[in-house]
Amino acid sequence: MDDPFKNAQQQLKKVNRYLKLPAATLRKLLKPQHVWKKTLKIPSYKSYKTYKSYRVQHNNALGPYKGGIRFHPNVSLSEVKALSMWMTWKCAVAGIPFGGGKGGVVCDPHKMSEEELEAVSRAYVRAFYKHLGPNLDVPAPDVNTNSKIMEWMVDEYNKQQTTNNKQQKKNEILATFTGKPVDKGGSLGRTEATGRGGVIVLQTLLKLIKNVDKSLTIAVQGFGNVGYYFAKIANEEGFKVVAVSDSKGGITTLDQKSKIKNQNYEQIDIEQTLKCKQERGTVAGCYCLGSVCDIKYKEKFREITNDELLELPVDILVPAALENVINEKNAHKIKAKIILEMANGPVTPEAEEILTKRGVIIIPDVLANSGGVTVSYFEWYQNMHNERWTEKQVNDKLREYMERAAKEVWEQFMKMTNDKIQISNQIQNSKFKINLRLATYALAVKKVAGM
After folding, report:
1. Residues 22-26: contacts with CB under 8 Å, at least 24 apart
2. Are 187 and 394 in contact (CB under 8 A)?
3. Which of 142, 342, 144, 95 is closest to 233 using CA atoms?
């Protein structure tokens, strides 16, 4: 069975073949500094329901632990440990003063009432509040958690501080959690931050590789918060989003015989498609052009599956939904020349090896989707300093951070390439392939290790 934490450890060991960290430093980074496990006990009629829960703190060399809390039936300790390690690298790459942490509760929120969700949220804080704080560990929303849940958690944290006679200022209590509602101390610009950050990273790297095409075609798999805002902002910035999908299927304006170049593709209206999805429950069948959705436009579209979207002849493929969707079974069918990982871990190591040999550029998730945690840092900063930034200030600062991160990754990539490092591949005994993921991890690990 696939073990996320072992995969994360293998990634670190792989980049260490280039970095050659001291043995003690490598041992320290290969495991979390703290692993907390609790069983939450929630009253239910005349008995109790119990839920396994975790908070993992991987490394705080650069600042307080930072990482979301996810509610999902498949949450595991291995997953939370892996995610905490990846958050360490993500914060380091983004250049924000946080370390990596992560939390989770094994539950199915879709089968829970709002009262049960609130009870679990508050119980989680009671279980772990001693390990949380604005200068210690700063949680945020993640899978199946949101700003409302953060509001409950802030309130419960405040109660626990009061009950235990802890003296903490109101702004510090607010700063203990990010992703809050805007009127409860949240930051403007946070909702679209991950998608916006991905567009900025893409724009920056395209300039660095000297690709000045203004109308590159994009397919986006996943039409949740990240996929929607990425697609919307990409269109606004001059890209041409020609395919989108959700869990039930998708649409594209490409016909089956299309080639990548020299075609006048129709650009999908992303805002109207979202409205259509909200009405229908899926983007499939949403034929929206020119701010209008109508069946008469069907001739300009065709419905596709998620698997078909991945294999479209577009310039840029953006997996923004699930992990491992690009794997050794379909890697040979991928036609895009650039893959931007807006989901966590959408490309398996086996697929990456196949794609890298073919010259496909993979912009890794640790860089591509770091806009969200960057604006979470902005929220924390605003709370800690009693400031309130405008949306323009947030977006301008986000662009500054994302451009700098992308440029640093590219410089690291060029350095590693120019060094002509030859690292023995233990399986194939061939040259070690330098790619953007390796460069991103090398940059992050060097920062955390103080190299």
Report:
1. 25/449
2. yes
3. 342
- Report the alpha-carbon distance of residue 231 to residue 245 in Å, rounded: 11
399-409, pLDDT tens digit by residue?
A: 999 999 999 99
C-alpha span between 7 and 349 (Å, rounded):
9
The DSSP secondary structure of 345-369, one letter per residue, reads S-B-HHHHHHHHHTT-EEE-HHHHT
Nearest by Cα to 444 from 4, 8, 10, 12: 12
Whether the full predicted model's pTM is greater than 0.85, yes or no, is: yes
**Degrees (nearest 5) of the Cα angle 149, 33, 158?**
30
For residue range 277-291, list pLDDT tens digits in order: 999 899 998 898 877
Q: In what order do the strands lie in the sheet with 302-304?
A: 302-304, 249-252, 240-246, 217-221, 316-319, 338-340, 361-363
Alpha-carbon dihedral 244, 249, 254, 257, rounded to 10 degrees: 150
Q: For position 432, what pLDDT does the model report? A: 53
Query: Average model confidence (pLDDT) for the chain?
Result: 91
Are 172 and 132 in contact by the 8 Å Cβ rule? The answer is no
Task: Choose, from 66, 81, 90, 102, the residue flagged as catalytic.
Answer: 102
Q: Is 102 a catalytic residue?
A: yes
- Cα atoms in the Cβ-side hemisphere of radius 13 Å centred on 446: 16
Report residue 362 as tokens.
């993979």
End-to-end Cα, the chain, rounded Å: 35
Distance CA 131, CA 135 (A): 10
CA pair distance 335, 296, nearest whole angstrom:
30
Note the pLDDT tens digit of each residue in 206-265.
999 887 666 899 999 999 999 999 999 999 999 999 999 998 999 999 976 655 444 556
Q: Pull the structure tokens for residue 343.
A: 């989901």
Which pair of tokens denotes residue 374?
């960057």
